[in-house]
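[recover] target loaded
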């Protein structure tokens, strides 16, 4: 039978609802802002058959009385640690949703002896969107597709908390720097994200898992931020397997993501221009006698996606041969689309040609990933967007995502230095560039790889909402030959095509 009791520490009260069997793991469930323990009912019903479940009402939410002031995330983490000690819950499996994930991470980082495993469901706050306006927008986008069950639970919980207390807790949520806490966590960690979660984009969930020394990420298809309510059986299965020590989801190992490429003084920048163009000149010479790609590029592991290699302006497929060889050596079939010439046509027209060429060939079982350099990445994104209509061109062609290398997703302001219209079409003010920039819905299916300094794209290739990876190599062209780039591209392909 369920038992309900209170834990008190000064003026702060946490209501505990305990269910389950005495043997097995101790699951401690932490709700997000505005919610209460009833939000977990479906999940708790599944978990209580394998262990003890402690579903909490945090101070001021659910049945817990409201204190005078909200706690910071660090203070909430300490309060939770006090509860674990007082209740004799040793080596807990902490399960936090949304802001509950922030509290769980704080407890795990500060008191590793109390936490056996950590589960972060829809962890907030994405540091690239740490503003009240942005979080409100994401929340509204997410609830627009919620089912009636979730809406009813949410309205009941929000009514109990009240708008004043809810608003008071927004500041601690936004001020918390989870990315600074995560590297201190020692517990095995599983990050769970709903596939359509607008609050927690895919790249941020992957970064959370990467920032934890022992982190993995799993994705629940077709669900949003409320995934543990609408898909409690699937989420419970992931949690139980994780608690048992199974390797759930996939391991993520990515470097910390920089927000901008480095800037250099004029003399150093000039030196990189010279070296970059010297490399480009050498690669252009490879065009001589390179009529067809190597025959072995057509062979690969059918369980891995085909790679469609797209060069940039004035680049032949042979310009990307070092990258193509590396991808093929890793087991991917590498596809080259002929008939693009020096790639001087408009992005839309080139994308249409690419679409026709790919449509003539049966979609491989594992699908396709576009790997494009510079303009090639923009062509790939154009196909993901669907161009000027609403058809799912990428889906029909089996395109799982795009890895762009040194791609000017925001345009290239230095294109104004050139008179060639095909290069000036990359200016930030160009109609197609503006359209692609506003099409943020597909960015989660893009990995942007760039170097420490790009003389052609000085503002960097960071794409908001994508997975951004900086490799320790400078240049716009030299990056293509670097082993670090090859590894980053391969990891990007795996991230885009591995099911959670």
């Amino acid at each position: 039978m369920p038992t309900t009791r209170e834990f008190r520490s000064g003026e702060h009260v946490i209501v505990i609802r305990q269910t389950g069997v005495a043997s097995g793991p101790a699951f401690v469930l932490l709700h997000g802002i505005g919610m209460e323990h009833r939000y977990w009912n479906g999940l708790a019903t599944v978990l209580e058959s394998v262990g003890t479940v402690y579903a909490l009402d945090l101070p001021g939410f659910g049945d817990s009385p409201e204190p005078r002031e909200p706690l910071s995330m660090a203070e909430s983490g300490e309060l939770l640690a006090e509860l674990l000690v007082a209740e004799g819950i040793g080596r807990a499996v902490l399960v936090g949703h949304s802001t509950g994930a922030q509290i769980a991470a704080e407890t795990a980082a500060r008191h590793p002896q109390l936490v056996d495993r950590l589960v972060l469901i829809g962890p907030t706050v994405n540091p690239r969107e740490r503003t009240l306006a942005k979080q409100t927008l994401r929340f509204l986008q997410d609830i627009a597709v919620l089912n009636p069950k979730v809406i009813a639970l949410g309205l009941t919980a929000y009514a109990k908390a009240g708008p004043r207390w809810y608003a008071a807790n927004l500041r601690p949520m936004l001020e918390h720097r989870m990315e600074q806490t995560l590297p201190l966590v020692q517990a095995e960690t599983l990050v769970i994200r709903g596939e359509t979660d607008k609050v927690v984009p895919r790249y941020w969930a992957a970064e959370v898992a990467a920032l934890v020394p022992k982190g993995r990420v799993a994705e629940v298809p077709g669900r949003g931020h409320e995934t543990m309510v609408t898909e409690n059986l699937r989420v419970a299965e992931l949690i139980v397997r994780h608690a048992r020590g199974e390797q759930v989801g996939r391991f993520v190992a990515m470097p910390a993501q920089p927000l901008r490429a480095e800037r250099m003084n004029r003399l150093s920048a000039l030196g990189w221009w010279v070296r970059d163009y010297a490399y480009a000149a050498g690669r252009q010479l490879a065009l001589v006698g390179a009529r067809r790609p190597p025959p072995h590029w057509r062979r690969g592991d059918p369980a891995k996606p085909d790679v469609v290699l797209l060069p940039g302006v004035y680049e032949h497929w042979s310009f990307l041969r070092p990258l193509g060889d590396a991808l093929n050596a890793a087991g991917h079939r590498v596809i080259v689309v002929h008939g693009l010439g020096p790639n001087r046509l408009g992005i839309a027209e080139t994308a249409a040609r690419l679409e026709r060429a790919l449509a003539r060939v049966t979609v491989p079982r594992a699908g396709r990933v576009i790997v494009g350099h510079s303009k090639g990445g923009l062509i790939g994104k154009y196909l993901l967007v669907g161009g000027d209509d609403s058809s799912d061109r990428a889906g029909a062609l089996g395109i799982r995502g795009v890895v762009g290398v040194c791609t000017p997703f925001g345009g290239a302001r230095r294109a104004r230095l050139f008179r060639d219209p095909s290069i000036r079409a990359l200016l930030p003010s160009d109609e197609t560039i503006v359209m692609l920039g506003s099409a943020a819905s597909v960015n989660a299916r893009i990995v942007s790889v760039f170097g420490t300094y790009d003389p052609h794209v000085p503002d960097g290739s960071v794409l908001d909402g994508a997975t951004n990876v900086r490799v320790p190599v400078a240049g716009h062209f030299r990056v293509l030959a670097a082993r670090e780039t090859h590894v980053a591209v391969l990891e990007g392909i795996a991230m885009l095509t591995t099911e959670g």
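[recover] notes: The chain has two domains: 3-251, 266-497.
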